[in-house]
Amino acid sequence: MLLSQFQDILIEAGCDEAGRGCLAGPVFAAAVIFPKDYFNPVLNDSKKLSEKKRMALRPIIEKEALAFAVASITPAEIDKINIHNASYKAMHVALDMLKIKPELLIIDGNKFIPYQDIPHECIVKGDGKYLSIAAASILAKTYRDEFMDRLALDYPEYDWIANKGYPTVKHRTAVIKHGPTPHHRKTFRVTDPQLKLF
């Protein structure tokens, strides 16, 4: 059972990202503020849900959240500032877009670059512990997947419809055979598809 809040005094926003480990496409992040005592028994870490369930939950999250926002950082900027900084920047941009200013941030993972003067808590596997982080993971994932599906129409050989830009064998083979697209992250190394990914 996921928890509604990390604490029950401050207005709290949950943040998560999607696409950090991809070879292609932007990194997306989302921020979500739910009402205190919010409950949804189906909501969970996006990785534990099917695509159909994620897509069904997205409009529910958007309707029932007090505020939410989704932002992305381009591959070119990822190459410029590195993927870690780009992930946190995407979260910062999403936080900038919220119509309610949070008083506490709960972040999925173990690191974060502080945002303004707002205190934050980093929570490892937070998307499986707190509803707002789970909701942020679903929004970031579904918006990013849709973005990659649109790109895939112009670049069918990279199989983005199936892999969403992650380094599958088919994707890495296509990069080695056809070269990178303008949507690939140039600083991400593409290894021989026969080698295992560690």
Structure commentary:
It is a single chain. It is built from 6 helices and 5 strands; from the N terminus they run ββαβααββααα. The protein has helices spanning 51-64, 75-81, 83-97, 131-152, 160-163, 169-178, and strands at residues 12-18, 27-33, 67-73, 104-108, 120-123. It has a 5-stranded mixed sheet, with helices on both faces. Helix 1 (51-64) crosses helix 4 and helix 2 crosses helix 3. The longest helix is centred in the C-terminal third of the chain and has 22 residues, at 131-152. The radius of gyration is 17 Å and the shape is globular.
How would you spell out the order of helices and strands?
Answer: EEHEHHEEHHH
Give the end-to-end Cα distance, rounded to a whole number of Å.
Answer: 32 Å
Oligomer: single chain
The CATH architecture classification is: 2-Layer Sandwich
Q: What spatial form do the alpha-carbon principal axes imply? A: globular
Q: State the fourth-level CATH superfamily.
A: Ribonuclease H-like superfamily/Ribonuclease H
Q: Structural class of the secondary elements?
A: alpha/beta
Mean pLDDT, to the nearest integer, reads 94
**Tally the helices: what do you get?**
6
How many domains, in number, for the residues?
Answer: 1
- Tally the beta strands: 5
CATH class: Alpha Beta
CATH topology label: Nucleotidyltransferase, domain 5
The amount of beta strand, in percent, is 15-25%
Strand order in space, largest sheet: 3-2-1-4-5
Helix content: 25-40%
Radius of gyration: 17 Å
Largest beta-sheet characterization: 5 strands, mixed
Poorly predicted runs: none
